[in-house]
Amino acid sequence: MRVVFLFFLSLLFLSSLFASEDEWEELIIKKMIMGVAQSKVVTLYTKDATLQKEFKRNSLIHMTDDCKKSDFVLIRDSSFLKTCKKPAIVFDYYSYLHNPNAIGVFFWQKGRPTIRFSKKRLEHFGLQLNGELSKFVSSKD
Q: Residue 68 domain-assigned?
């Protein structure tokens, strides 16, 4: 019986090592949002159906259909940010550099996740990162 339990425990551990890119993306984005949030519960706006589905299961992140009611925006199409003036996390570096509402960026580079936050933009929105994410702040952007 003990051998069977250890076998299933090993399978569970191994499956977590080979998590999909989407699962890693969800985990990293969640960490980014909660690291910037000023409260325990965050209201989030995104048009991405996959992200909406993933974050609806999270009790600390509430989804909204109205950008104006959100605390943060997660957006893949940065042209939307011209109408929505909320702090945003975007998914490509070009949008991050050229959009003043983009406080952070998450993208994959050479198979590895990359995140960055703009010190100037965080200050503009009156936001601070928790200690764990402070090493990803750039003063250049």
A: yes
Cα distances from 69 to residues 22, 84, 108, in angstroms, run 26, 11, 29
- Asked if residue 38 belongs to a domain, the reply is yes
Domain coverage including residue 36: 19-138
pLDDT digits (tens, 9 = 90+) for 71-121: 999 888 767 667 788 999 999 899 899 889 999 999 988 888 899 999 999
Per-position DSSP letters for 46-93, written without gaps between them: E--HHHHHHHHT-TTEEE-S-GGG-SEEEES-GGGGGT--S-EEESSH
**pLDDT at position 56:** 81
In the chain, the number of structural domains is: 1
Six token digits for residue 80: 């939307």
Tell me, what CATH number does 34's domain have? 3.40.50.2300
| DSSP 3-state of 110 | coil
